[in-house]
Structure formats: C-alpha cells, structure tokens
Design brief:
The chain contains 15 helices and no strands. Helix 1 runs antiparallel to helix 14, helix 2 crosses helix 3 and helix 5 packs parallel to helix 14. The longest helix is centred in the N-terminal third of the chain and has 42 residues.
Length: about 375
C-alpha cells in the first residue's frame, strides 16, 4: 500500500499554495470592490446634492413656495364668508397664522442648508415625495407614479432605437472590416460625421417629408386620437407613431456606431495571433468568433450598458418635437414649471443606474477578458 508523504515542516505543498493564492485573490477583489463602491457612492452623493442646489436655485424655489402658500391662504381668507366681518389687519394676521402652520408643516421655516440635507437624504433613500404642479394621467401627484407612467413610452422608443442601432452597427461593422477599403467602407467613413447632428435635427426633416409633404405618417403623439378600441389596432397605431422618432434616432447615430465597431474589428483583426490562426488554416468564421469578437466584448458590453442607461432619461428635445409622452418630455415640463421634486427624482434614478452600471462593468470586464486585473494584482503587474 502506498503511503502519501505528509509535507515536511517549513515546506509548502502545491495545494496549500494554490489555496492561499485563491484566498488572497478573493481578498483583493473584495478590497477593490469596497473601494470602488465607496468612490461611486461619494460621486452619487455629490451629484445628487449639486442637482438639489441647482434645481432649488440655492433656496429661491423654496421662497417661491412660501410666497405661493401665503397667496393661496390669502385668497381663501378673503373669499371665506366666516371671515368677512374681520378688519384688514385681522385678516392679515389670520393669513400669517394659517400660512405659518403650512410652512412649519413643510419645514420651510428651517435654514436652507438644513433643508437641502433633508432633501438629499430623501432623495438617496428614494423618498421622492410629491410634485409641485405636475400630475399623472390618473391625477396623482406622487413623483413615483408620474415617473412610472412616463417610463413605458420612453422605454419603447429608446429601446427600439438602441437595439436597432446596436444590431445593425455590429453586423455592418464586422462586414466592413472584412471589406476594408471597399466603396461601402469609404461611404460609411464619409458619412460618419453626420452623426454629430442630434436626433431632433433629423426628426424635423422627417416630419416635414413624411408627415407634412407625403402624409404617410403622423406628426407626433404615441397613438391616434381617439385611441382605437381594438388591441391589435392600438398596437398598429403605436407602431405607426413610433416609426419617425425611431428613424430620427437611428439616422443620427448609425454611421458613427458602424464606424466605431468597424474600427475596433480592424484593430483586432490585424493582431499577430489572428495571422497565426489564418496560417493554421482556421476558417474566417472561427477566427472572427474566437480572435476578433471576443477581445471586443468589453467594448460591445460597454456600448450596450451605456445605451440602456440612456433609456431612463429619454431624449428631451426629440420627445418634445414628436409630442412623445415619455420621461424626456416630463423633464422638459418639470424644468419649465420649476417642479423641483420631479427634476431631482429623475436625476437621482439616473445617477443610481449609472453607478450600478459602472460597478458591474468592472466585474464583467474581469469575466469576459482574462487580461483585466484588479486590486494589488494589477498594481504589481
């Protein structure tokens, strides 16, 4: 019977060495993740607090709210029958008393630095509160109800456009990298600067051509008025209204996206290991899948993640031009009405989504690309 020899004192076995290496690697990942989370959290807090300061105009909006409260109380006192016998001085005193009760209930009597910290805490804990003047279609003033009501149209518009652009750019970029220098390749390179114009710019021309001149598509909105009673007809109506805004987003981004993907594919297709794979006789499909697409995964994942982050905020000007009832139009209305809770809530949600995406991208990078190192291991290399 063979007897395994125990490791001698002072001599480390290979298994023990691997275990310690795995533990130290796990500790490095935890330390890196903790530092990353803290830095992201600090950035989110600073961004949210600055948004509160700007949206509240340094406390000026709260002063407007106090003035509105006094005005509403004054109108009620002067119009109420039970106060008609009071003198002017008594009415003014009564107005001050009633207004002060509401001001104290809203804590508007506190200094603005204290109020701003309370607004910050409410925002970070997603206590979004109530809108100042904007209401949902159901009549609710709760900010979360207003945002959720507008989220669906924005997701429909932005997701449709983002997925269409991404899939088209991915396959077209790969095809152009195969035919480098062809007429189509040069045409895309020449048209890439057209993506510097925003989506609403192309939207105006699309409305003029396909809605005003040809009359093929509607000018704007999300559905016909009145909405079709049949679900299938309703779907077709939404699809018809979706064509022009999606086409505007697609036109404004497609050529730059194709050029970007094509450039990355060209860079990785010129690497030495790709030439070696060709010399070994691997097929073009296998080379593209193993040696070109895989190294570009971090870039592709980043593009997908950041494009989906923009789904939340929407496209403010584009939605306004097409009268699309999404979050972009909501942000426009809130900005014009100085509805601070809605503006702050929209920014907070975007900041949280962006922070989570940035944190998860680091983890995904380490998974899909073994060359990515984290923590002390990256510094030692």
């Amino acid at each position: 019977m063979a007897i395994s020899e125990a490791p001698r004192p002072g001599v480390e076995s290979p298994a023990m060495g691997r275990t310690r290496s795995d533990v130290s690697g796990f500790v490095r990942v935890l330390q890196y993740s903790a530092v990353k989370l803290v830095s992201i959290a600090v950035a989110v807090v600073i961004a949210v607090y600055l948004t509160i300061l700007v949206a509240n105009m340094g406390g000026y909006v709260d002063q407007m709210r106090i003035a509105t409260i006094k005005e509403n109380v004054g109108m009620w006192v002067y119009q109420a029958e039970e106060f008609r016998h009071l003198s002017g001085a008594e009415k003014r005193e009564l107005i001050d008393q009633f207004a002060q009760v509401q001001i104290q209930a809203l804590r508007l009597d506190q200094p603005f630095p204290i109020r701003s910290l309370r607004y910050l805490w409410n925002g970070l804990t997603l206590n979004l509160g109530y809108a100042e003047g904007i209401t949902s279609d159901s009549g609710s003033r709760q900010v979360q109800h207003i945002l959720l009501e507008r989220l669906g149209p924005t997701l429909l518009l932005q997701a449709s456009a983002s997925i269409l652009v991404f899939v088209t750019a991915l396959f077209m970029g790969l095809a152009l990298s195969r035919g480098y220098g062809s007429f189509l390749d040069r045409l895309v390179v020449a048209l890439a600067p057209t993506s510097s114009a925003p989506a609403w710019f192309y939207g105006v021309f699309l409305i003029l051509i396909f809605a005003a001149l040809l009359g093929w598509l509607p000018f704007g909105g999300m559905v016909d008025a009145p909405p079709p009673p049949n679900k299938f007809q309703y779907f077709l109506s939404v699809l018809k209204h979706l064509i022009l805004p999606v086409a505007a987003v697609f036109t404004s981004t497609i050529f730059a996206s194709i050029f970007s993907q094509r450039t990355f594919f060209l860079i990785y297709s010129s690497e030495d290991y790709v030439e070696m794979a060709k010399a070994k006789g691997l097929s073009d499909r296998a080379i593209e899948r193993r040696y070109i697409l895989r190294p570009t995964l971090p870039t592709i994942i980043t593009s997908i993640a950041l494009s989906f982050i923009t789904l939340w905020v929407g496209n403010v000007t584009l939605e306004q031009i097409f009268n699309w009832p999404g979050l972009g139009q909501l942000f426009w209305l809130a900005s014009r009405a100085v509805d601070t809770p809605v503006i702050v809530a929209n920014t907070i949600i975007y900041a949280y989504l962006l922070a989570i995406t940035v944190f998860l991208l680091d983890i995904v990078y380490a998974i899909v690309d073994p060359r990515v190192k984290v923590g002390a291991e990256a510094q030692s290399n």
